[in-house]
Amino acid sequence: MNHLLPTALETRRKEVLVVDSLAAKGYPGYVNGVQRMGTVSDVYGWTKVHAHINVSPDEGYALTDKRSPHALYELMMMSAGTTHRPGLHDHSPEFGKALGVVAACFAEHCRAYELSPVVSWSYDPSTLDRESIQGEKRFHAHLVGRTREERAEVRARAERVAGLNTVRARRIVEEASVLGALVSADIVDRDALRVLRPVPMLSTHTATATAQFLLPQGWESLTDPDLNADIDYIHRKLRNMYDEVMRACTTGTAGMWRRPAVRPFDPESIDVPLRAGTRAALAHYLRALRPEVLSGPVARSRATHVYPLADLAYAVTITEQEGQVYLHLRTNVFSDLGGAGISIIDGVIVKTKKGVGDLRVDEIAARSAFQVDFLHRLHHHPMAARALFPRL
Q: How is residue 225 annotated by DSSP?
């Protein structure tokens, strides 16, 4: 078989622990789908808005209930300004600081409920023809609390990627995610980071499937004003890397059912400082691609295996592992599973399957109470002003 990764890296990928899949109940009668929220009115029309905070005349965020749950205990923070902003870097530093306080407060709230917090978001604004990791193109962060029962299920059901078939393996831990961990280790200057501390690549299962960074002060690190600058810096590095690979190694442009094609290239022409091993792995990956020419829509199972996303795409997940808190950045080329579709629970990569059964009346009541209690906790948080009055 012609693997997309060199043998040694493919072997490491096959060792990563995964669960396929963790079920999440849905609201009775709700049919899942993508609703584009082009206007603020759409946000109110398609979600239950608990709070709406203005950051500036054209920027704001809403705390909402998600119509298609990824877990029983969750909340969503969605960009809700008149200007459409898909990435965290597209927002002001004040927005980023507000997100940090909301997420840190959410983690505190989860501890009160004996839950394990997971905060995640995705970036994929350009993919419009096939399944995307960012279905709604407004920036939105998923705030999820995992129960003891869910964590026990993950521990009991965890298996290695090698146990999955080829299509499922690529969807849950795709080759580009491993390659992204290597590339990130080379292009991200640890001395340029103010808060995040890089975890050595390939040192753990999660540092194989993602670029992994320690948050040294745990969840409180999210309230550090410099964290937003770190995330913005990493995005710029990834953007530059992606654009340089496209320039040096491909021909053509991306569009509706159209993607660039890999052309003959010299790996040394990629004008980014990379270690020899990373450069060789990147060249191996690109030369192993055999993109098919597609002229129209195809089934999700096929598109997510052979037809790439339209541009730079990645998911960010912040979660606990062995008593520490980490930020994971997972790059996507084929997989349609973003920061909510893939969760990381106690060091295991977990696919979430939505809409498996209906929430009971008592579960809906518990979900609502959890969300309302969080709003009260946020209101009394020591840094509430950053979240509720971002421009002060």
A: T
Q: Which residues of the chain have pLDDT under 50?
A: 292-295
Closest CA to 145 of 108, 101, 97: 108
Whole-angstrom Cα distance, residue 10 to residue 4?
8
- DSSP category for residue 304: H
Q: Which of 292, 337, 343, 291 shows the shortest CA–CA distance to 317?
A: 343
Tell me which amino acid residue 265 is. Answer: F
Residue 80's identity, in one-letter code, is A
Q: Which residues, at least 6 apart from 34, have a Cβ–Cβ distance to it below 8 Å?
A: 135, 136
Predicted local distance difference test score (pLDDT) of residue 45: 74
Q: What is the pLDDT of residue 41?
A: 77
Q: Name the phi and psi angles at 209, rounded to 5.
A: -85, -10
How far the first Cα of the chain sits from its last, in Å, is 59
261-287-269 Cα angle (round to 5) = 80
* pLDDT computed for residue 294 by the predictor: 45
Length of the chain equals: 392
Q: Encoding tokens for residue 120? A: 């995640």
